[in-house]
Write a structure and sequence with these properties.
Layout (H helix, E strand, L loop, with lengths): L20 H8 L4 H27 L8 H6 L8 H12 L8 H18 L7 H18 L14 H27 L4 H15 L3 H11 L12 H27 L2 H9 L4 H16 L1 H14 L9 E2 H8 L9 H29 L8
Length: about 375
């Protein structure tokens, strides 16, 4: 046999002028006349707006520790961050007893720890259910009291802990219900399919605020005399039912995106219905549905502000109650910016985790 010499070649650099920062700017920012005009307009707005914003928010701002008089003196020139320093505990914790603020703080840390554990793929098994059950129980114990802690009625719960509870508890409980509804809507059994379709279309046909009103004002009318349901529990159930209907359609979209060959291969292996769904169909469908599922969670986190209509002091209402103080009332803009940053931090983190999951679970479904 002839011996073939393998020639080694050294990679050559790309032609001069075909790469680099200047080429990227010219291609993406000045690629056409319209793009060039738009780039110049945006740059002009940035040059005009950013220095004024920095001057107002940082240079001439009144920082925590100063009084309301200093803020009035700087009114119109600098931000009054002193209002955050004075009212941040009322904004974050609402009407929760002041001396017990360590409890909602610890409860939020427990809930965030549970969420972070859920983000670790090593815990994606049946034990994650146990983690969430324990996390929920500890959260409720810290917030409500009992077993050695002073009892705090749910009417005093508020602020960020209540917002986190309604959003994360709502999503965790609604998720398995949504999976059952999505499978039920695709079921070949007429009764199960009809029940699933009626539920999904009925709930999706009304706004969340309607369910909150029904749970808070209409449901007690049908209860036996002397029977009451906690207001926070009613709002939580309404959020769960609402979110489950929307998530069901999201998951059904992922199920329909899978080729029939997946189910047919499972049938060829003599797998039963539930094994096929749990081991083959649902893992792929949920992976495809990651972006809309996270989008639903982000929307739910922001929609929790609607519970203020049924007199629950979420983060937004707690801020408005804190700004009821006439001394600090003129500086409501800074308070709104403060809670805006809190909402943004949560939503941005969820969005980045969604992108991380899409990259790590990528197996060819995403278009490039």
């Amino acid at each position: 046999m002839q011996q073939v010499d393998h020639l080694t070649t050294t990679p050559e650099a790309p032609p001069r002028g075909s790469s680099g920062a200047f080429v990227w700017v010219r291609k993406n920012l000045f690629g056409s006349i319209f793009s060039s005009i738009l780039t110049l307009v945006i740059c002009g707005l940035i040059i005009w707006f950013v220095p004024s914003l920095v001057e107002w928010a940082l240079i001439k701002a009144v920082w925590p520790g100063a009084g309301a008089d200093a803020c009035r003196a700087a009114s119109g020139e600098g931000a009054c961050w002193a209002v955050i320093g004075d009212k941040w505990r009322l904004i974050i914790f609402g009407r929760y007893p002041f001396d017990e603020h360590w409890r909602p703080t610890l409860a939020m840390l427990v809930l965030m720890g549970t969420v972070l554990v859920s983000c670790d793929r090593r815990f994606w098994s049946a034990r994650l259910i146990v983690v969430w059950i324990l996390g929920m129980l500890v959260f409720l114990w810290l917030m409500g009291g009992g077993f050695g802690l002073t009892s705090v009625p749910t009417g005093l719960w508020g602020g960020l802990p209540l917002t986190m509870m309604l959003a994360f508890f709502g999503m965790v409980v609604a998720f398995p219900l949504a999976i059952l509804l999505a499978l039920g809507r695709r079921s070949s059994l007429p009764l199960i399919k009809v029940v699933s379709v009626v539920y999904i279309e009925l709930i999706r046909g009304v706004p969340l605020i309607s369910l909150l009103f029904m749970g808070s004002f209409l449901l007690p009318l049908f209860m036996p005399a002397g029977t009451t349901i906690d207001a926070v529990l009613r709002a939580q159930i309404a959020i769960i039912l609402f979110q489950a209907a929307y998530l069901a359609e999201t998951i059904r979209g992922g199920l329909q995106a899978l080729p029939k060959g997946q189910s047919e291969a499972a049938d060829a292996l003599a797998l039963g219905y539930w094994k096929t769904q749990l081991l083959i169909v649902l893992p792929q469908a949920l992976k495809i549905s990651i972006p809309p599922i996270v989008g639903s969670l982000i929307s739910l986190f922001k929609d929790t502000s609607l519970v203020a209509i049924v007199s629950l002091s979420d983060l937004l209402l707690s801020m408005r109650q804190a700004m009821g103080d006439p001394v600090w009332r003129p500086f409501f803009v800074e308070a709104f910016l403060f809670i805006m940053l809190i909402y943004w931090a949560f939503c941005f983190s969820m969005s980045k985790y969604s992108q991380y999951l899409e990259r790590t679970l990528e197996t060819g479904h995403r278009r490039r």
